[in-house]
Amino acid sequence: MVPAGSAFRLRTPQRGGIFLSFLLLLCFLLFFFVVYLVRHPLLRLAGGFWVVDEGPSASDAIVILGDDNYNGDRAARASEILRAGWAPRIIASGRYLRPYASIAELEEHDLTSRGIPVSAIVRFAHRAENTREETAAIGQLISSHGWKRIIVVTSNYHTRRSRYIAERTFPQGTILRVVAARDSEYDPDNWWRTRAGVKIFAHEFVGMIVALWELRHSDSQTSDSSSLDPLHPMVANSRHPRTLRVYS
Fold first, then answer.
1. pLDDT band, very low/low/confident/very high, at 236 (cuts 50, 70, 90)
2. Pairing of β 90-98 and β 121-126
3. Which string of b and e fits 205-243 if b means at least 16 CB within 10 Å?
4. What ranges do the domains of the chain cover?
């Protein structure tokens, strides 16, 4: 026979467990309610994360990364920078669409239609399939000409990933600045409201993960070499393991 007081003591923990579960559920619902209230600022913060705009400085060349949008916004921004006198030439980089035609030709047309003389355009057609291969090919081009100060112009959403990749594929000693061109399909403040904006955001998210994976060895290898050489560029600028970036 169990005393009445013992039965009371057995039921008390059960009531305490129910109260704790209810409190946890309430906190859970409250958390999601707060997130819902601030969802727009959080989405804007996420959308703006991909955008890097360092502004132009005196350089040897401006590079337009390939696959510009329908309106030619990258070419438009590069034209503005050249007309402002920040560089004497523009490299129109673009992959081949056919053996006889490339995106580089389209970019050249976009530039000349905006008043840029052909003599200031370096048409650079290639067969790169992604940003890493493209910047590696551009790196060989600028190295062959001895160009050291480079402005990279690309779409606003593509700037952070492009900078990360270019810093690790351009020749050592390159002074790099990345400039964002507006894109009619991606507004960092409202990207989630359009199908195109959501697709671009998701593409950049996956693309950045791939870039981090593909270039993971560049950081570790440079870190090992810089620890042995106190004059290595890594020591001068810890944010830039392979390309020395100087801001003026």
1. very low
2. parallel
3. eebbeebeeebeeeeeebeeebeeeeebbbeeeeebbbb
4. 61-182+191-236
Report the candidate in 168, 151, 188, 192 with the shortest Cα–Cα distance to residue 65. Answer: 151
Q: In angstroms, how far is CA 77 from the centroid of its own chain?
A: 17
Contacts of 152 (CB under 8 A, 6+ apart): 62, 63, 65, 162, 163, 166, 176, 177, 178, 179
Measure the CA–CA gap between 111 and 88, rounded to whole angstroms.
Answer: 14
71-94: pLDDT as tens digits: 999 999 999 999 999 999 999 999
∠ at Cα 235 (220, 149), nearest 5°?
A: 95
**CB–CB of 101/125 below 8 Å?**
no
| Whole-model pTM over 0.85 | no
Pairing, β 90-98 against β 149-155: unpaired
* Crossing angle for the helix pair 216-228 and 195-214, to the nearest 10 degrees: 40
Q: Looking at domain 61-182+191-236, what is its CATH homologous superfamily?
A: HUPs (3.40.50.620)
Q: How many CA atoms, within 13 angstroms, populate the side-chain half-sphere of residue 221?
A: 6
Q: What single-letter DSSP state applies at residue 63?
A: E
Q: List pLDDT tens digits, range 177-227.
A: 999 999 999 999 999 999 999 999 999 999 999 999 999 887 665 545 444
